[in-house]
């Protein structure tokens, strides 16, 4: 049975990984996979109180964490921001841990990827990246539709991700741009559905809130041309008070619109298929992080090398780097709403 060490107790580590793991350990699904011993947690800036039920064991250093854990049967979750990754990976490797999950995006740029792969190779880390939209039931259904050919050839993909991210953008600075927050999720799906791609257009905008200007954190827009001709457009807005995670696939003979769950409040997804003048909608459970963790822990327990998601996530970082370079080199400076002309260059979104 595997134990867990969570490093970084922010949004990802504390509010996503910890509750999902706790739930899985308590459910019948987790039987024989997750140890009942406490989940060890570490964050230099947050030392939570231990829980009365003994489910977590906070530690003051990674060395202290290592003293109570056997690396051969521990999965490490690196939930620090992309800017605080490489040193953490090196430290856990030096302490003997090999089974390591890293939050997305794997890195903020190509240089970071090269350094992460160096650490992986030097220490033979069994590295997996959290790209849980690939484990989503909605993504699986979309993939099945694409490969079945039921609606003919896939022509285009459009993803729209909106949410308010004012407080976290004001309080933290681990993400260099809006490309690093939500876009990696839908980009993983686009690559899974339509294969390799190149960036043909990209733009971003600043966030301005309450007199503060946060560069590049307002919105991000990315257009891809896949090698087999499909066009993908992804638009992510972090200044919206509405939450939405929508994906639309246009086929030769129909259209599919999917909505991923938008928050931890409810883990249902919705999918509508339109073809031959008819429309069918289904709603279903879609707890993708739990599915991802189950699959990954099973792989680690069986001693598998988990590399497939790593390659795809390296590709994601490369495409996002190309998009950022395009923006820096004077691509469109303002991310507009998809399908409309962008506002004038240099304009920022004002929110007060
Ligand atoms: N998969 C998802 O749905 C999802 C959701 C949220 C965030 N994320 C990703 O998770 C990563 C973290 O984002 P977040 O929103 O949780 O950030 P956050 O700022 O909320 O939390 C990061 C935490 O890491 C800690 N930290 C920094 N350096 C550390 C170190 N050297 N050792 C231990 N802890 C350290 C910080 O003190 C902070 O508490 C990002 O890459 C983000 O994109 C993924």
Automatic annotation (TrEMBL):
<feature type="domain" description="Gfo/Idh/MocA-like oxidoreductase N-terminal">
    <location>
        <begin position="3"/>
        <end position="118"/>
    </location>
</feature>
<dbReference type="GO" id="GO:0000166">
    <property type="term" value="F:nucleotide binding"/>
</dbReference>
<dbReference type="InterPro" id="IPR051450">
    <property type="entry name" value="Gfo/Idh/MocA_Oxidoreductases"/>
</dbReference>
<dbReference type="Pfam" id="PF01408">
    <property type="entry name" value="GFO_IDH_MocA"/>
</dbReference>
<dbReference type="InterPro" id="IPR000683">
    <property type="entry name" value="Gfo/Idh/MocA-like_OxRdtase_N"/>
</dbReference>
<protein>
    <submittedName>
        <fullName>Dehydrogenase</fullName>
    </submittedName>
</protein>
<dbReference type="InterPro" id="IPR036291">
    <property type="entry name" value="NAD(P)-bd_dom_sf"/>
</dbReference>
<feature type="region of interest" description="Disordered">
    <location>
        <begin position="331"/>
        <end position="352"/>
    </location>
</feature>
């Amino acid at each position: 049975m595997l134990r867990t060490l969570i490093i970084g107790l922010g949004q990802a580590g504390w509010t996503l990984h910890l509750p999902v793991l706790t739930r899985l350990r308590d459910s019948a699904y987790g039987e024989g996979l997750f140890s009942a011993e406490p989940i060890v947690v570490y964050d230099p800036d947050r030392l939570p109180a231990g829980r009365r039920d003994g489910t977590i064991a906070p530690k003051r250093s990674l060395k202290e964490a290592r003293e109570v854990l056997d690396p051969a049967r521990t999965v490490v979750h690196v939930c620090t921001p992309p800017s605080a990754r490489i040193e953490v990976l090196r430290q856990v490797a030096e302490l003997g841990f090999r089974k390591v999950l890293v939050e997305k995006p794997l890195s903020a740029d190509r240089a970071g990827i090269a350094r992460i792969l160096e650490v992986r190779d030097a220490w033979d880390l069994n590295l997996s990246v959290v790209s849980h939209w690939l484990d989503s039931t909605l993504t699986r259904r979309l993939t099945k539709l694409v490969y079945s050919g039921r609606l003919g050839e896939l022509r285009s993909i459009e993803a729209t991700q909106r949410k308010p991210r004012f407080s976290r953008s004001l309080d933290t600075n681990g993400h260099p741009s809006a490309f690093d927050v939500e876009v990696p999720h839908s980009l993983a799906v686009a690559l899974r559905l339509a294969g390799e791609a190149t960036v043909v257009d990209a733009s971003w905008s600043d966030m301005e809130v309450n007199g503060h200007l946060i560069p590049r954190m307002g919105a991000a827009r990315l257009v891809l041309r896949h090698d087999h001709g499909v066009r993908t457009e992804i638009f992510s807005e972090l200044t919206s008070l509405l939450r939405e995670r929508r994906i639309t696939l246009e086929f030769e003979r129909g259209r599919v619109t999917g909505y991923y769950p938008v928050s931890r409040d409810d883990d249902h997804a919705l999918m509508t298929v339109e073809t031959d003048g008819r429309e069918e909608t289904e709603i279903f459970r879609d707890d993708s992080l739990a599915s991802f963790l189950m699959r990954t822990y099973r792989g680690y327990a069986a001693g598998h090398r988990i590399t497939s998601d790593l390659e795809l996530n390296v590709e994601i970082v490369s495409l996002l780097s190309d998009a950022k370079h395009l923006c820096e080199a004077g691509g469109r400076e303002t991310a507009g709403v998809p399908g409309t002309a962008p506002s004038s260059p240099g304009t920022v979104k004002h929110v007060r």
